[in-house]
Write a structure and sequence with these properties.
Layout: E1 5-10, H1 16-26, E2 30-35, H2 39-45, H3 57-64, E3 69-72, H4 75-81, E4 84-87, H5 107-119, E5 124-128, H6 136-144, E6 153-157, H7 167-172, E7 177-180, H8 185-198, E8 207-210, H9 212-243, H10 247-255, H11 276-289, H12 293-320, E9 329-333, H13 348-358, E10 362-366, H14 371-377, E11 385-387, H15 391-395, E12 400-403, H16 409-412, H17 415-421, E13 427-430, H18 437-443, E14 446-448
Parallel strand pairs: 1-2, 1-4, 2-3, 4-5, 5-6, 7-8, 9-10, 9-12, 10-11, 12-13, 13-14
Helix pairs in contact: 1-3, 4-5, 9-11, 9-12, 11-12, 12-13
The structure holds nicotinamide-adenine-dinucleotide.
Residues 10-16, 35-38, 41, 88-91, 108, 111-112, 130-131, 160, 162, 164, 274-275 line the site of nicotinamide-adenine-dinucleotide (NAD).
């Protein structure tokens, strides 16, 4: 079949894979190739066991794979053939040298730019899908200009706003699509070409076009604002626990104000995921590099509050379990950073587990989708941790259950069976406030919600 347009995506990760699967689904006349340097990842995309879990993803991939959606490691051939190249490689926090622990590590990004220069033989639109520091397109353009042929590259920013766990829904029905381009004739033409892809299924009014720098910066700011909401409500959860005010009642009361809105007001053990922390730290770094120290401090406090919430949660577990967890079995329900994903990057459960092991607790971990990643994250502690796919077995003989992820499965468990199998007194620390605390208390549990009054049988 002759395809109308050839799209290439470099980077077959949490963003590249699902985004390209949805484009292939909605644009059957386009050929979509997804390449990655990791053969293991590409093999998984071509198998029945995809490298990432997202509700609805498997069905779309199985529908389009081999028809107009292809996963491959053939970078050279695909760069040559592509009309549009989405770059969706990882942009982690730098761990070395200048800006270590704050700035974005752009080495993966830069190496794709050099690959494009090396293999391109025709004009192309290069789309920044990765989250990048503002003005990265300028650096990309400088590298692309080193091409010695007569080829034109137009760089466009099209950041991705999907959330893991709801990636397919977010891609099918996004609140908006953002496209940033130069305000030149070529820039506008490239912006329209990218908009034409999305117009296959997204109403025109939801497609926002801006200049390149606004688009690049908007993505960092969107994540900073979302994380700020979580840190704000988490800071108040600490105050609630001191005053017997109830964080859920407060969230409802303030969220009913249409200026504030009800979303992202659930308290938790802290935010995780690959993006929030790295993007805020990157924002902090950028602000500092422009000499805007007050701006940098303001945003850095969002990350500091998140660290506080995680350590506060662990300190509460230790204090309430009579100031020691040494030798006690503590079972974590949940390890992914949020429900409906197997992704554990920056999951608060990692820090919580390490802190509990540091106190000589015996940790067991149960998670419906994230045990494989948990084992990788905690490989240095292999001998000290038990992983169990069965929540009832995981809880047997435990002194405490700790809810670290808001999987809906955890609400459906029979906690009376769990209570009977546990050591007494039985503790439950609900870091996500997903359980029925009064019911658990009536069963005999000592219950410690987050940002709410604790329910204990101790006099
Ligand atoms: N994960 C999310 O929820 C999310 C949401 C929005 C935006 N983002 C941003 O999107 C970008 C990608 O994130 P992700 O979560 O998909 O990362 P990821 O680590 O899951 O995937 C990136 C992939 O790029 C591949 N890669 C790196 N260099 C390459 C190269 N030169 N050639 C080919 N492949 C290469 C890696 O092997 C990896 O498989 C990041 O900038 C991130 O900040 C992520």
């Amino acid at each position: 079949m002759e395809f109308k347009k050839k799209i290439l995506c470099i980077g077959a990760g949490y963003v590249g894979g699902p985004t390209m699967a949805v484009i292939a689904l909605k644009c059957p006349e386009y050929r979509v190739d997804v390449v990655d340097i990791s053969k293991e990842r590409i093999d998984a995309w071509n198998s029945s066991s995809l490298p990432i879990y997202e509700p609805g993803l498997q069905e779309i991939v199985e529908d389009r794979r081999g028809k107009n959606l292809f996963f491959t490691t053939e970078v050279e051939k695909n760069i040559k053939n592509a009309d549009i190249i989405f770059v969706s490689v990882n942009t982690p926090t730098k761990t070395f040298g200048e800006g270590a622990g704050m700035a974005s590590d752009l080495q993966y990004w830069e190496s794709t730019a050099h690959q494009i220069v090396k293999f391109a033989e025709s004009d192309k639109i290069i789309v920044e899908k990765s989250t990048l520091p503002v003005r990265t397109a300028e650096a990309m353009e400088r590298i692309l200009k080193t091409h010695n042929g007569n080829i034109k590259f137009e760089v466009v920013s099209n950041p991705e706003f999907l959330a893991e766990g709801t990636a397919i829904k977010d891609l099918l029905e996004p609140d908006r699509v953002l496209i940033g381009a130069h305000k030149t004739q070529e820039g506008r033409k490239a912006s329209k070409e990218i908009a034409d892809i999305y117009k296959h299924w997204i109403p025109k009014r939801k497609i926002i076009t801006t200049n390149l720098w606004s688009s690049e910066l908007s993505k960092l700011i969107a994540n900073a604002f979302l994380a700020q909401r979580i840190s704000s409500i988490n800071s108040i959860s600490a105050l609630c626990e001191k005053t017997d005010a109830d964080i859920s009642e407060i969230a409802h009361a303030i969220g009913s104000d249409s200026r504030i809105g009800e979303k992202f007001l659930q308290t938790s053990v802290g935010f995780g995921g690959s993006c929030f922390k790295k993007d805020i730290l990157n924002l902090v770094y950028i602000a500092k590099s422009y000499g805007l120290y007050e701006v940098a401090d303001y945003w850095e406090s969002v990350v500091k509050m998140n660290e506080y919430q995680k350590s506060r949660f662990v300190r509460k577990i230790i204090k309430e379990m009579f100031n020691t967890v040494a030798g006690k079995k503590i079972t974590l329900f949940g390890f992914s950073f949020k429900a409906d994903t197997g992704d554990t990057r920056e999951s608060p459960a990692i820090d919580i587990t390490k802190a509990l092991l540091n106190e000589n607790a015996k940790v067991t971990i149960h998670d419906p989708k994230a045990l494989k990643n948990a084992k990788l994250d905690l490989k240095d502690f292999d001998k000290d941790i038990i992983y169990d796919t069965d929540p009832y077995k995981a809880a047997e003989d435990a002194n405490a259950i700790v809810i670290t992820t808001e999987w809906s499965q955890f609400k459906e468990l029979d906690y009376s069976i769990i209570f009977d199998s546990m050591k007494k007194p039985a503790f439950i620390f609900d870091g996500r406030n997903i359980l029925d605390h009064n019911k658990l208390f009536d069963m005999g549990f000592n219950v410690y919600p987050t940002g709410k009054k604790q329910l204990t049988h101790f006099s």
